[in-house]
Amino acid sequence: MGLSPEQTDKPSTFLPLFHSLLIMSLTSGMVSAILIVDIIFDLPIAAAQLSGIGPFTSQPSSSAVYHHAFIYYTAILNSPAMTFKTLGAMTSVLYGSWLAWDAGAAVNELNPQRYGKKFPLALRFQIIFITYCVMTAIYLFFIIPRYLPFMQNIQKYVFFNDVPLAFSEDIFDNWWYIALLRFILFSGNIAAIVQCIQVMRKLVRAIEPDVRI
């Protein structure tokens, strides 16, 4: 995106940045909320699978936690509304972070002495963008493949399997690492939100140096 030299240090210069940060913050919050619900069902399975291993306390095995997770994932992964919400959130985050990277680089080029020191804006946005790229890759290549057995339309139209999925604990084999990846994604989302807030504070101070937030 192009910014003319006359726009340097004017509030309008920073509007694309604020828009991008707002998109990222809102969608990151939505993704984090979805992850929290998933973690609630993942943790009991992870605890059962890691029971008695290393520092983990031994616990009695129960098929109830597996059955509850089976019902949840079967329902949620076959819900069009939930599927489009997740894909929309991921797309919005990546698009917003890309806009922010582009705008941040433009601001740094206009006034590198002011915005290029002490953790420059462009670098902050690049870190956010790379963080979301890594989290999206983790979701697509490690979590989505474990979801496929639950997705009836995928089984029917891609794998030509019309037999309904029957409950079995084997479906959740090594599910503990899915719970671990979920924690990584959640932590990445929270870290990105914190970074967005810090960048907003820096932009506000750039526009109004006397403001302290």
UniProtKB/TrEMBL annotation:
<feature type="transmembrane region" description="Helical">
    <location>
        <begin position="121"/>
        <end position="144"/>
    </location>
</feature>
<keyword id="KW-0472">Membrane</keyword>
<feature type="transmembrane region" description="Helical">
    <location>
        <begin position="175"/>
        <end position="197"/>
    </location>
</feature>
<keyword id="KW-1133">Transmembrane helix</keyword>
<protein>
    <submittedName>
        <fullName>Uncharacterized protein</fullName>
    </submittedName>
</protein>
<feature type="transmembrane region" description="Helical">
    <location>
        <begin position="20"/>
        <end position="41"/>
    </location>
</feature>
<keyword id="KW-0812">Transmembrane</keyword>
